[in-house]
Amino acid sequence: MEEIFSRSVDFLGSGRYASEQKRRLREICYCKVCIQDGYHSYFHEMPWLSMCPFHNVKLEKVFGEHKPSIAESRIAALELLLSESCMSWPHCQDHFPLVESDVAISIAAWVARARAAAASMSLGEVWCLGEDDSGGGVSLSQSLGQLRVLEVMPDLIEPLFIKQRGKWDLEVLEFPMYVKLELSRLKRLNIKFGDLYEFYKEVTSHAPKKPVFVERANHFVDVLRARHGSCTCRWALVPDPWEYKWAEVDPGSHFGWRSLCPFQIAIEELNVMRKMPEESTITRKKIENRILLSLVSRQMLDANLISYTKDAKVSAGGYLTIDESVARACIWRPQSPLTDLLNTAAEWEVDVTFDALKAWLDDIEHGAQPFNQDRPKYSLRLRETSSGMSLVKWTASPGDQQAS
Ligand SMILES: [Zn+2]
Ligand SMILES: [Zn+2]
């Protein structure tokens, strides 16, 4: 048993471009030709490889039996494999003849270049869309797809990688130094970009002149409504009874009043983007949200980012009262150096949200289940550069990038 390459053949240090997705703990991935010669390489265990780089054959899987530790379980499984497949085991050749295979060297070199490119694209990252969401980082498919944009993969090694879904595109917009300086000023006032961004959308979405991101979200809602027509969906999210669950339903049947079909969910998500969720009920969560917004608006007022309207309901301490709507009581100062950046981010967020929803609805239409969706993550990222700020947008378009 020999570990042919060091453990540096991975994407650690690639920031949010690296996937944390791993093989299952007791799973051993191996090449049946390598095993015959008594060899197992760390390469075979890389979750992004589907073929042996030395023999160009598909990797096989085996699961270790339960042992006190995972390491013991893996070693036992490997030993069993070797004793069954390798004639001379435990006496192997001294040197594995394929160590210096062009393909393996090319893979290691590409991984190193891609890792460096991703590290430099992550440098100075101050925010990304969905950074507070729970549920792990990017999928292997997204990670590989984006790394391949940052560093072109040689044709030679392409067929050895797992199949990736969609083709990724990168768009970058640079903002000048005064934007960076303004964000530094706000940082000193303990205002984080993520909070500022959410607050900006809340305040401007209700302004008399609708911002572009709201108009765009309105348009996408119309597109989805037209496509949906009268509901013939085969899936619905139904209460069960403590939580919601996906269930297959008779197409066209009328669901219970609390059930939602995929289109209704997609439209609701866009409604949140254009800040138009149902306001008819005041829940505890909404009250908590109001209190938080009241505190944040005071912070924004002190930072000179907004002003209060003349008839805003303000307490003696200078905070908005809980029954006051932040969107109604606050006016964003359009001359803020951040307006352009915030607008672009909001417009791009509407775009990437719609793209993801559309891909999801397409998949369901083609027979996929509505859960377990590999939804793009961190589609927008904001970075500090030496000359200002850089806003990054990642878009996935359908179609296989790689047809292996
Ligand atoms: Zn092999
Ligand atoms: Zn429907």
Explain how this protein is built.
The chain has 404 residues and is of the alpha+beta class. It has 2 domains: 15-162, no CATH class; 167-400, no CATH class. 39% of the residues lie in helices and 14% in strands. It is built from 11 helices and 10 strands. The chain has helices at 32-36, 70-85, 102-122, 140-150, 177-188, 193-204, 212-228, 262-273, 284-302, 326-329, 339-365, and strands spanning 27-30, 60-63, 125-128, 165-175, 235-239, 244-248, 306-308, 330-332, 380-384, 389-400. The strands form 4 sheets. It has a 4-stranded antiparallel β-sheet. Strand 9 and strand 10 form a beta hairpin.
Structural topology:
Elements: E1 27-30, H1 32-36, E2 60-63, H2 70-85, H3 102-122, E3 125-128, H4 140-150, E4 165-175, H5 177-188, H6 193-204, H7 212-228, E5 235-239, E6 244-248, H8 262-273, H9 284-302, E7 306-308, H10 326-329, E8 330-332, H11 339-365, E9 380-384, E10 389-400
Antiparallel strand pairs: 1-2, 3-9, 4-10, 5-6, 7-8, 9-10
Helix pairs in contact: 7-8, 7-11, 8-11
